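Example record

One chain of 188 residues, shown exactly as stored in the release files.
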Amino acid sequence: MQDPTLVLMDEHRVIEGVLDCLARMIDQVQATGATDWHAARRAIRFFREFADQCHHHKEEDLLFPAMERCGFSPQEGPTAVMRSEHELGRRWIQTMQQALDEIEAGNPDAATAFRDAAAGYLYMLREHIQKEDHCLFPMARKALPTEEQTQLAEKFRTCPHAQAHEELLQIANQLREQFLPQAAPGGT
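Predicted structure tokens for this chain:
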């Protein structure tokens, strides 16, 4: 049997690596009022395309409906909570993007707005990942029949965003090399 939640947990580890980079950016803004804004844009692209469009697509369009077919409430159950947190994350990403646009337009005060939005996103997404890894995914493994889990894992591998996956992983690695060189692949 292929376990689709292991695919999602592997993706969580990649997302957490970029969250660690975002934490460094937040620290830089706090200390100096600036960071590498180009890197911040790449991080936002990663969060928007990898975390949201690819990873959350697998959850919202594939895993959650499968869980709901097994009796989880789409209005009040854990999948509803996860969907609402995904939406909150989208709003944080949009706020970070707007702050970067203002920084580019010459508004120095927008660095604080970026820092605050990034900190909100960072905190929310780390908590969200913990809930999924330690609560939601074990529920899914228990509730979903083996055949359905195998089908989900196959659908994950062939999702519409699979082509961009490698490029986005490259962005994640580049950010880790820049902000966390000791943790980057091949680092010590």
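Notes: DSSP finds six helices and no strands in the chain.
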